[in-house]
Amino acid sequence: MTPEHSRAARALLNWSQVRLAVRCGLGDGTIRDFERGRRTLRPEKLAAIRQAFEVAGVVFTAAGPSRTNLAEGEVGIIGNSEM
């Protein structure tokens, strides 16, 4: 579980940091600091976050090779730094 995973899962569920904190039994400051990269969490706290998401229906999969699904000639959205 990374801060990016947590933010993405919350977005899928439309959960606030406070709602996640309540669901996993952690403080909202803990969630906020973790998602901002200011705090490293112990494995049992990461497991509690993951379990809260999984109970709500989020499925985490193993990371695979990065790929795009654009047909040749199609254009994707890029960040401003890539323009």
TrEMBL record:
GO molecular function, one term: DNA binding
Transmembrane segments: none
Source organism: Mesorhizobium amorphae CCNWGS0123
Family matches, as Pfam families: HTH_3
Domain of life: Bacteria
Entries under InterPro entries matching the protein: Cro/C1-type_HTH, Lambda_DNA-bd_dom_sf
Protein name in the entry: Helix-turn-helix domain-containing protein
PROSITE patterns for the chain: HTH_CROC1
Domain HTH cro/C1-type: 7-60
